């Protein structure tokens, strides 16, 4: 995935026009495990949503797997999203009406419109991999926060995406659970070669990542440059 | 397993209270529609059947004799003169050929010739004015059922017998086997034996109708071999008017359909049909609005889940389909419950309300077709009602749901 001069503004019309991202240049390398750091309000979620084709940039270009995405209609963007991208959100965002297994299958189900027994097996296998084989039939409300997040993580993997975008996946977990979830993400990256971009403002967790991308007030800090601790205020 | 079906079904099942509410609404609406339709069509079928039980669907009579247009005075134009003159006893000659031709026409199921005219029935010094109707019993019964009208005697009409209405039988103190004398204004007079006593369902007919063998009636009335009417039964009751027009054209006779001979009844039936249609249309609208409003609320409540599904790569069209299907399912299941409800209500009322003779006052017409069409319409209305909420769901911005 490549971003070239991506800008994003909100507002206009009656409310004042605010530019949140000021020209982002970024390239993600296949198989890498990158952390996206930055203080609250710096534009991390906005950037992630743009990369996830959920929002369109005001300016600039975004390539996914060699495809330019500017000007694509909703159906094409949805198809790309379904094919290449997996999402993990801060609040697990599992569907309460469906069992853990069904939630895991959902990206495939949603994209193809149907699932085969093999797909079901794959979903069960993924759940087993994160130690939730016994919880496959349970609804999200019957699971703990850590379990829910693990279900959400394997759901993101269901379609064998090229890139998983995780927005503060450990944001509302206790430290120990957060460590476990992070370790799991690492493991999945190593074993499958799936690319991960993980938003966090926990420096300790980011330190475990081979690549750290820093965002400050809508601008990327040069890679590897040590910037002030994210706990410090934005400016 | 199909995504759209599965998700639609789950969302309905999960939103128990709303689903129950919307189903109840659809059921009641459909119940009312089924009930009204069953009662009204039952009632109408019954009225028509009663009315037509002694009538032919189409009656052919001699063409009217109209005055010849007088010579027009130069300078003036006479467009028409439709004043009739006295219709002399005008009969149909050579009716055998006409009957054969009419029998061969489409939408004709039976034909019977009749020679009828006024007469007097006399017995033991009592004289009653009657209508003498000469028929070939076999043919006549094809057009007007008699077996269900038989009170006493046998349905046979050999020479020298007559079939009479029950009021006349009572007035003259007659039973099958009894004798009476029939006379006509032309001087004909004959003594006949009562073959059977019939109940035509109307007091006036029971007082007046005397069925005689065709040959005897023709002799009594002085028609030679002519007849006065040809009765036609049509295969499709409600196409009698077009059949009549057709017959008039083909035979050159005057043809009256049952609709034109029962104008008031037809008008009453039409306005009843119209008002029951109005009720059905309004109830359908109310049901559609109910479905739409509950689904709109459901879309708002499920905003987050819809956003997640969209973010995971569910095409907008599939979200649209999920909500349309929910509307359709609600319509379908609501119509099943509603049909049951309506059928139970209609049956109940027909059991409760009876006429003095014990037959139901409200005969109900509950046929499978009613349920099938109701289910189809309800499903369609459900889908249409879901259109607005479904579009709203499909257009939801996933980002809003995810940021929230
Ligand atoms: N839909 C929106 N309309 C207007 N402003 C927005 C919208 N979404 C985000 N913003 C603004 O963009 C900035 C970046 O937000 P965000 O990307 O969520 O930051 P982060 O995830 O780093 O905390 C914030 O100042 C936020 O108020
Ligand atoms: Mg954020």
From TrEMBL, chain A:
Gene3D superfamilies: P-loop containing nucleotide triphosphate hydrolases
Organism in which the protein naturally occurs: Vogesella alkaliphila
Classification via InterPro entries: AAA+_ATPase (IPR003593), ABC_transporter-like_ATP-bd (IPR003439), ABC_transporter-like_CS (IPR017871), ABC_transpr_LolD-like (IPR015854), MacB-like_ATP-bd (IPR017911), P-loop_NTPase (IPR027417)
Protein name per the record: Lipoprotein-releasing system ATP-binding protein LolD
GO molecular function annotation: ATP binding
Family the UniProt entry places it in: Belongs to the ABC transporter superfamily.
Highest taxon of source: Bacteria
UniProt keyword annotations, A-Z: ATP-binding, Cell membrane, Lipoprotein, Membrane, Nucleotide-binding, Transport
Matches recorded under Pfam families: ABC_tran
Keyword Lipoprotein: yes
Domain ABC transporter: 1-235
Automatic annotation (TrEMBL), chain B:
Membrane topology of this protein: Multi-pass membrane protein
Keyword check for Zinc: no
Protein's cellular compartments: Cell membrane
Origin: domain of life: Bacteria
Highest classification ranks of the organism: Bacteria, Pseudomonadati, Pseudomonadota, Betaproteobacteria, Neisseriales
Pfam name, any one: MacB_PCD
Residues passing through the membrane, by range: 20-43, 277-300, 320-346, 370-391
Keywords attached to this entry: Cell membrane, Membrane, Transmembrane, Transmembrane helix
Organism: Vogesella alkaliphila
Protein name per UniProt: Permease
Record keyword DNA-binding present: no
Family indicated by similarity: Belongs to the ABC-4 integral membrane protein family. LolC/E subfamily.
Occurrences of domain MacB-like periplasmic core (ranges): 19-235
Span of domain ABC3 transporter permease C-terminal: 280-398
Main location: membrane
């Amino acid at each position: 995935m490549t971003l070239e001069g991506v800008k994003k503004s909100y507002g206009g019309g009656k409310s004042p026009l605010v530019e949140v991202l000021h020209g982002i240049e970024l390239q993600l390398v296949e198989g890498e495990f990158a952390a996206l750091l930055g203080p609250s309000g710096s534009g991390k979620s906005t950037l992630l949503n743009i990369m996830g084709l959920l929002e369109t940039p005001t300016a600039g270009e975004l390539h996914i797997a060699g495809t330019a995405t500017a000007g694509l209609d909703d159906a094409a963007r949805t198809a790309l999203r379904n094919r290449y991208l997996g999402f993990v959100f801060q609040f697990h965002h599992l569907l309460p009406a469906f069992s853990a297994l069904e939630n895991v299958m959902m990206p495939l189900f949603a994209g193809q419109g149907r699932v085969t027994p093999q797909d079901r097996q794959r979903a069960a296998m993924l759940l087993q991999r994160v130690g939730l084989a016994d919880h496959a039939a349970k609804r999200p409300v019957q699971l703990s926060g850590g379990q829910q997040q693990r279900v959400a993580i394997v759901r993101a993997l269901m379609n064998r995406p090229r890139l998983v975008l995780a927005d503060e996946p450990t944001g509302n977990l206790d430290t120990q659970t957060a460590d476990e979830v992070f370790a799991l993400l690492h493991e999945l990256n190593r074993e499958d070669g799936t690319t991960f971009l993980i938003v966090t403002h926990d420096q300790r967790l980011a330190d475990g990542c081979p690549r750290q991308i820093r965002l400050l007030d809508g601008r990327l800090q040069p890679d590897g440059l040590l910037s002030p601790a994210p706990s410090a205020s934005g400016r | 397993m199909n995504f759209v079906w599965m998700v639609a079904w789950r969302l309905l099942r999960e939103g128990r209270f709303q689903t129950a509410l919307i189903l109840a609404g659809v059921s009641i609406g459909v119940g009312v529609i089924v009930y009204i339709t069953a009662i009204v069509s039952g009632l109408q079928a019954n009225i028509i059947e009663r009315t037509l039980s002694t009538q032919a669907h189409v009656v052919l009579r001699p063409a009217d004799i109209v005055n010849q247009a007088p010579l027009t005075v130069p300078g003036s134009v006479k467009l028409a003169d439709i004043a009739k003159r006295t219709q002399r006893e005008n009969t149909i000659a050579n009716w055998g050929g006409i009957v054969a031709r009419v029998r061969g026409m489409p939408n004709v199921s039976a034909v019977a010739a009749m020679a009828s005219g006024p007469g007097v029935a006399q017995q033991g010094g009592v004289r009653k004015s009657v209508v003498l109707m000469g028929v070939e019993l076999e043919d006549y019964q094809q057009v007007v059922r008699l077996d269900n009208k038989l009170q006493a005697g046998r349905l046979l009409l050999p020479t020298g017998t007559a079939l009479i209405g029950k009021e006349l039988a009572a007035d003259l103190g007659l039973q099958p086997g009894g004798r009476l004398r029939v006379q006509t204004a032309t001087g004909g007079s004959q003594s006949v034996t009562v073959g059977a006593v019939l109940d035509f369902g109307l007091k006036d007919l029971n007082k007046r109708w005397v069925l005689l063998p065709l040959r005897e009636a023709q002799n009594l009335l002085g028609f030679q071999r002519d007849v006065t009417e040809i009765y036609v039964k049509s295969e499709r009751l409600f196409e009698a008017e077009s059949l009549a027009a057709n017959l008039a054209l083909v035979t050159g006779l005057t043809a009256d359909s049952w609709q034109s001979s029962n104008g008031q009844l037809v008008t009453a039936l039409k306005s009843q049909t119209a008002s029951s249609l109005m009720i059905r249309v309004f109830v359908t609208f109310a049901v559609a609005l109910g479905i739409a409003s509950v689904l709109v609320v459901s879309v708002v409540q499920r905003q987050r889940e819809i956003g997640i599904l969209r973010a995971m790569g569910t095409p907008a069209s599939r979200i649209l389909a999920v909500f349309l299907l929910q509307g359709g399912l609600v319509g379908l299941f609501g119509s099943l419950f509603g049909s049951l409800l309506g059928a139970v209500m209609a049956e109940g009322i027909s059991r409760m309300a009876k006429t003095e003779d014990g037959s139901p006052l409200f005969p109900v017409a509950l046929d499978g077709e009613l349920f099938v069409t109701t289910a189809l319409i309800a499903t369609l209305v459900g889908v249409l009602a879901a259109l607005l909420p479904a579009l709203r769901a499909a257009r939801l911005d996933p980002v809003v749901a995810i940021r929230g």
